[in-house]
Amino acid sequence: MTPVFKQLMQAIDKAPAQGSDTLLCDSQLLGFDTETTGTRAGKDAIVSASLVLRDPAAGYQGDVVGEWIINPHCAMNPKASQVNGFTDEFLAQHGEEPTEAVDQVARIIDAAQTKRIPLLAYNACFDIDMLSADLKRWGLAPLAEPLVVDPLVIDRAISKRSGRRTLEYTTQYYGVEPHGDFHDARADTVAAVDLIKPMSTLYPQVGKISLDELMQWQRSAFETWKESFNEWLSSKGRRPVTDTWL
Questions:
Q1: What is the CATH code of the structural domain delimited by 3-235?
Q2: Exonuclease domain spans which residues (predicted)?
Q3: Is the pLDDT of residue 1 over 80?
Q4: Which of 50, 62, 220, 231 sits CB 3.0–4.6 Å from 189 for a disulfide?
């Protein structure tokens, strides 16, 4: 049992269970982010993962953080390596075995879910798909269907601004100051969690979403965005997207 695993599990154990009527603005959150060998779940793998337990009453200073560097036992895509800075040599020397590290990440997420603490990830489908694929790859227990907060889905629904919606651009829009460099799993996780407070301030309807409403609200928001985006793609003679949200 690694120290970060023990620390996060103890913090979750001490956290009060949240009710279905808990509002997003008041909810504890478990931020999640990964860096990977590439973008294809099942073929590529996680090389870095970060979990950040956030109590909104305590804010950033009260965060409980866990970080893992993982030996994926497969090669880095050179383009991914350029983005996240990881190399095959570094991961082979410093990475934990995935059977232990990936299992710890999943067990912490499952523990938080029993307290109805949502898993928050920016573009959540990517990170959850990567984790699910790695769990399958290493013969580990799958995740239960999680309660999720996706700031990207929320932002598309409430902000009609034009331009890119990467995590970096979105944090700039909401006035979030990053704690570290982007494409570092910990810095990205904290930045994504930090978005909920200004989103709830600028758009009070976001903060008033209850945990019971959360998943359906985001699924509906994603479908509305997809319909609009596909209309734009069609106007450009491009193929529509067929993705679904969680």
A1: 3.30.420.10
A2: 28-205
A3: no
A4: 50
